[in-house]
Amino acid sequence: MTRSKMLWVCLSLSLIGLFLLAIGVSLREPVAVTLDEVSVSSVGDLVSVTGVAENVQYKNGNLFFRLASETGSIRAVMFESDIERQGLDPYMLENGLELITEGRIQRYKGMLELVAQRVTLLSR
Length: 124
Description:
The chain is an alpha/beta fold.
């Protein structure tokens, strides 16, 4: 096999691998956890957490709230692009509502934060 053919085969296989990896990541389902299970080792994890919304604020197109339960609480943010993608009316989210929040655990200014990708209201 010539050098150029070998290079072409390697490049093709690399691109196929990256494509399959991207599909696998996009199909990944969030893992249901309780707030007491969220820790520094959870950073980067895709999770689903049930709790009550507190300190709800909608500003500059982004939604900020604290998700609380009997086992703990975590600061959460949902960015404008995810609000629009989900078709969520941010004014429907109020303090005291129970919800399921799906997203990634991140660190922001030294604190753990849930970057929400989907919010489902359980009570109204």
